Amino acid sequence: MKSSNSRPSRVGRNPFVHKLKFTVTEKIKIGLMSVTVFPVRLLLVSTLMLLAWPFAFTAALGRSDFVIEPQPWWRRFIDLCLRVIMRAMWFCGGFHWIKVKGERAAASEVPILTVAPHSSYFDAIPVTMTMCSIVTKLESKSIPVWGTLISYIRPVFVFRSDQDSRRKTVEEISRRAQSGGEWPQIMIFPEGTCTNRSGLILFKAGAFIPGLPVQPVVLRYPNKLDTVTWTWQGPAAFKILWLTLCQPHNPMEIEYLPIYTPSKEEKENPALFANNVRKLMAKALELPLTDLSFDDREISLARGPLRIHDLSSLLEFHQLVCRLGLRAGRTDNVLEEQARRARKLRGDRQSLEDFAQFLNLPVTDTLTQVHSLFDQRGDGQIDIRHYIIALSTVHRPSKSMETLKLAFKMYESEENGYVLEEELAAILEIMLGVKEVELSGLFLTLDRPDSAKITYDELHHYIEQHPYFVQDCLDFQNHPRKFGPPKSCNGQKHNKED
Questions:
Q1: Residues 6+ apart with CB under 8 A from 405
Q2: Are 292 and 411 in contact (CB under 8 A)?
Q3: pLDDT tens by residue, 159-210
Q4: Helix 332-345 × helix 400-411 angle, to 10°
Q5: All residues at 6 or more sequence positions from 26 whose CB lies less than 8 Å from its CB, including other chains
Q6: In 3D, which of 24, 29, 38, 25 has the Cα closest to residue 238?
Q7: Hey, is 294 helix, strand or coil?
């Protein structure tokens, strides 16, 4: 599979991974703080959170989640009390001085604040300082104590079990945003997930669909030891809390950037609006843009014996598939059915029109881009099996052996279940995201007469015996092995990632 020249791939450091390394001095400091400061801070933070609960519970009594109501004096008093209590809680947690730059615009001017990067549950600090509404999953409401505090700020709840959840969420955001400032401002983290702040991932369009002015807000944690980052692969939630409370001081900066008013073109194209705001925020943060989205996290974190080695082409393919609307219907059963139909074609190459008919989709620019990714010869014809292998790879990136088995079903001969060497090379090139896979080393070690073909069971057994199969038994363009031929595949342990 080849990459499109329509846009460069900018992946860089994986934003969904956070690794902490401590010096000996830092370990000693954490050890001392763990038995002295940490217990006191944890007690104070817990006490203040419990103290905030009855205020939030009382203020939420009898209040509608859908109709804006006048704020009586006692609710305004409770709001002030909650702000003081929550600021004291963060102070006790080590966030002594929170630097605020710029000025927050009034709700009547800007109904939506877009905040990035989103990297920690400590990003709740600006929420508690402003008491803005947020967008959060419905399950957050049931969290003891904290759920009551979340309910108090009247968030837009996302019902993940509802198939129309995304549409309803966007409609509710638009309804509140167009109220002329009657509803509280909505603070939205458009990345949609936590990252390690190495770059800004793609923004979701929800905050930009109303087409109204937004105020970008950027967050910084300029601490030397990053204990606050909580993302998909890294320290767990309690470890983050423990390490952060063990730091003498946790600096934080909140900067309100100038209001961004969309152009006519941006109002009609929320994705363009979102991307232009992202560029503005990345410049203020001095961070690179990363062409990954929340939906790409599983691909970038894939593990297994045949994990993806080069993400660029598969990530581009995945984003195009999502634009085609095929993500929701991409199930194992659909893949099996498509593989069965592809097998009947016996490798017959498909034109763009044939491809559209196979997928039961109209010919569009996006479909044309997908088709071109698999047009290796440049003759406008593709092998549909390559598309299905790529689709299975991005659908279940951590289940590479299932994708391999599906590929064998499409390629193997009916008589003996063999796949030829050049066919296996094509399969692995797509699954690994690499080019020019060389399998001579593998087939030389099989030690049997039919050295140019292999069955799935034989290859599966071979991979089980050689856990570093890709590193040691394959050769391809830009292989991590810097020099020398493939190793003897003796299955010895290596100090490498799987």
A1: 456, 460
A2: no
A3: 766 667 788 888 899 999 988 888 889 999 999 999 999 999 999 999 999 9
A4: 30
A5: 225
A6: 38
A7: helix
